[in-house]
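Lay summary. Proteins are chains of building blocks that fold into shapes, and those shapes determine what they do. In this project we predict the shape from the chain. Here is one chain we studied, written as its sequence of building blocks.
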Amino acid sequence: MIYPTTSLILSDLVRRFGHRPLVMMEQIREKINTVGIDSPPLNITPREPKLGLKYAAVEVPSGVRGRMALVGPLIEEAEAAIIVNEPDIAFGCMGCARTNELTKYLIRQRDIPVLEVNYPRNEDEGREFVSKIADFLKSLPQNGNSENSEEDGQ
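And here is the predicted shape, written in a compact code that computers can read:
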């Protein structure tokens, strides 16, 4: 699991080290390609509001519940997580501060390895950022070959 869940940079790093990144783009692609949704990604099925309630109460704004209907299952599937604190908006904007807080909280509640790094603000920090992520990813177990590593949830 990566946070922000829309970060293409993190997604690429995770994939390069032999793990399958769990990202929102995959969830949205599945919705778009699902038969029965007439105007994707605007329409939803009756399942999504119910799924969102699993992660956020009915009093929570509907946008949070809607996002959590996509992000929540990724958190549950994750075997490890990378959280980037205070990312630049271009790094992978999630679009909703309350969803961001809830996402990070739920990740931290899981009993999985979690790496938290600060978003780099200069070249030296950028090198250290990538190095920390690479070391973390190398420390995680892999199934041995690239086909099986797609089964890992990162």
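What the prediction tells us: The longest helix spans residues 123-139.
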